C-alpha cells in the first residue's frame, strides 16, 4: 500500500538514496584520487583550494610547509576510511565539477529517481538536497545524469559546510530556517537511520530508503517510515 505524505519541501540525501553507493565509492572516488595532487599544484592561488589545503594540514597534524605528497597521503587515508571531512569534500567537488563539465562523468540514478523528482516538482513541491558532498559537487552531479540535466528541479543545496553534520539535529534546524519552513513541512529521504534520527529530532518528517544491495538495505530504521523505492510513497504539496 502506497503511503501519502503532505509537505512543502522534499529534502534528499544522494548516496544510497538517489545513486548507488558504489557510484560514489568506486566511480567518483577513483576519478578524484589520482587528480588530488595535480589539482592542488595547479591551483595554488585559488582561495578555495588554498583554504582546503590549510585545513587538511591542520586536521591531519601536518606542518604548514608540508608537501603536496604529504597532504595527498592524508586525503587518501580519509577516503579509504570514508571520512566526511569538509576540505576533502571541497577538493573532490571541484575535481568532479571539471569531470562532469568535460563529459568524463555521468551520474547514474536509480530507475525510480528521475520520475519521482519530476512528479514532485510538477506538483508544486519544492526540492532541496542535503549531502556530505560539497554543494559544487552536488550541482555538477545533477548537471549530467542518465536522465539528463536535473539541476532545474532543485532550489537549494546543503552540505556539511553550510548546514553542519548530517547526524545532528541543529543541522536540520539550520536548513529549515534557510528554507523558511516549519520543520513539519519538510520530509527528508535518506538511507542512513542516524541521519533520519537527526532530522526527526528537529520535527521533520522522515522516510528511510532501504534499497536492495545497498549498505543500509537491511538496517533497522526504527520508527521511521521505510521504503525500498520512491514508488512506495506519495508526497503531495500542502
From TrEMBL:
The EC number(s) this enzyme carries: 3.1.3.77
Pfam assignment, any one: Hydrolase
Single Gene Ontology BP annotation: L-methionine salvage from methylthioadenosine
Pathway: Amino-acid biosynthesis; L-methionine biosynthesis via salvage pathway; L-methionine from S-methyl-5-thio-alpha-D-ribose 1-phosphate: step 4/6; Amino-acid biosynthesis; L-methionine biosynthesis via salvage pathway; L-methionine from S-methyl-5-thio-alpha-D-ribose 1-phosphate: step 3/6
Enzyme class, spelled out: hydrolase
GO molecular function annotation: 2,3-diketo-5-methylthiopentyl-1-phosphate enolase activity; 2-hydroxy-3-keto-5-methylthiopentenyl-1-phosphate phosphatase activity; acireductone synthase activity; magnesium ion binding
Assigned keywords, A-Z: Amino-acid biosynthesis, Hydrolase, Magnesium, Metal-binding, Methionine biosynthesis
InterPro entries per UniProt: Enolase-ppase_E1, HAD-like_sf, HAD-SF_hydro_IA, HAD_sf
CDD domains, per the entry: HAD_EP (cd01629)
Catalytic activity: 5-methylsulfanyl-2,3-dioxopentyl phosphate + H2O = 1,2-dihydroxy-5-(methylsulfanyl)pent-1-en-3-one + phosphate
Required cofactor(s): Mg(2+)
Cofactor info, note text: Binds 1 Mg(2+) ion per subunit.
Assembly and oligomerization: Monomer.
Role of this protein: Bifunctional enzyme that catalyzes the enolization of 2,3-diketo-5-methylthiopentyl-1-phosphate (DK-MTP-1-P) into the intermediate 2-hydroxy-3-keto-5-methylthiopentenyl-1-phosphate (HK-MTPenyl-1-P), which is then dephosphorylated to form the acireductone 1,2-dihydroxy-3-keto-5-methylthiopentene (DHK-MTPene).
Family (UniProt): Belongs to the HAD-like hydrolase superfamily. MasA/MtnC family.
Family matches, as NCBIfam families: enolase-ppase
Protein name: Enolase-phosphatase E1
Organism encoding this protein: Amycolatopsis thailandensis
Amino acid at each position: 500500500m502506497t503511503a501519502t505524505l503532505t509537505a512543502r519541501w522534499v529534502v534528499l540525501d544522494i548516496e544510497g538514496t538517489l545513486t548507488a553507493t558504489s557510484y560514489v565509492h568506486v566511480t567518483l572516488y577513483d576519478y578524484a584520487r589520482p587528480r588530488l595532487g595535480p589539482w592542488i599544484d595547479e591551483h595554488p592561488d585559488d582561495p578555495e583550494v588554498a583554504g582546503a589545503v590549510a585545513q587538511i594540514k591542520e586536521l591531519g597534524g601536518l606542518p604548514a610547509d608540508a608537501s603536496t605528497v604529504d597532504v595527498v597521503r592524508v586525503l587518501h587515508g580519509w577516503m579509504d576510511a570514508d571520512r566526511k571531512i569538509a576540505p576533502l569534500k571541497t577538493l573532490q567537488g571541484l575535481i568532479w565539477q571539471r569531470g562532469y563539465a568535460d563529459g568524463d562523468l555521468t551520474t547514474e540514478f536509480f530507475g525510480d529517481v528521475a520520475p519521482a523528482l519530476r512528479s514532485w516538482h510538477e506538483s508544486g513541491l519544492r526540492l532541496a538536497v542535503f549531502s556530505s558532498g560539497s554543494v559544487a559537487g552536488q550541482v555538477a552531479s545533477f548537471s549530467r545524469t542518465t536522465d539528463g540535466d536535473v539541476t532545474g528541479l532543485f532550489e537549494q543545496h546543503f552540505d556539511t559546510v553550510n548546514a553542519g553534520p548530517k547526524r545532528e539535529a541543529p543541522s536540520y534546524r539550520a536548513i529549515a530556517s534557510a528554507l523558511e519552513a516549519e520543520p513539519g513541512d519538510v520530509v527528508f529521504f535518506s538511507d542512513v537511520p542516524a541521519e533520519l534520527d537527526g532530522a526527526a529530532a528537529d520535527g521533520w518528517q522522515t522516510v528511510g530508503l532501504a534499497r536492495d544491495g545497498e549498505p543500509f538495505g537491511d538496517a533497522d530504521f526504527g520508527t521511521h517510515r521505510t521504503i525500498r523505492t520512491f514508488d512506495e510513497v506519495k508526497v503531495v504539496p500542502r
